[in-house]
Every structure is written in structure tokens, then in C-alpha cells.
Design a protein that fits this description.
Layout lengths: L9 H11 L9 H23 L15
């Protein structure tokens, strides 16, 4: 009995094999890339603001304080 003497339909067998394979996952890359760029940008902006902002000093002088 040769290879071509099989009673199984070759196209049906090929279809069954493709249906049994796990589906290939195709996750889009752009949402993760946009989130990473936004996080990097905001962290650089906040760091620049922290460095460039004047220090917050509060000095309270009481009226009539002894000199």
C-alpha cells in the first residue's frame, strides 16, 4: 500500500491539522510603545520641574517680636 492509497482525504487532513495548531498571538506593539513614551516624557518633565523650580520657603515673622 503506497502513500497515495490512503482512504483519508488529504485536504480534510490538512485542514484538521491547521485547526489543531494553537493560534498565533498577534499583540499590537503600539499601545505599549505609546505608554512607555508617555511615561518617559512625563518623568523627564517632572524631573526638570523639580530641578528648575525655586525652593519653597515659608518664613513667618511675628508682629511685635523682640529684636
Amino acid at each position: 500500500m503506497g502513500i497515495r492509497d490512503s482512504t483519508l482525504d488529504a485536504s480534510a487532513l490538512a485542514r484538521a491539522r491547521t485547526l489543531l495548531q494553537p493560534p498565533a498571538r498577534k499583540d499590537p506593539l503600539w499601545p505599549a510603545l505609546v505608554a512607555a513614551v508617555a511615561l518617559a516624557f512625563t518623568s523627564v518633565v517632572f524631573a526638570a520641574i523639580m530641578v528648575l523650580a525655586p525652593p519653597v520657603t515659608t518664613e513667618r515673622v511675628a508682629k511685635g517680636a523682640p529684636s
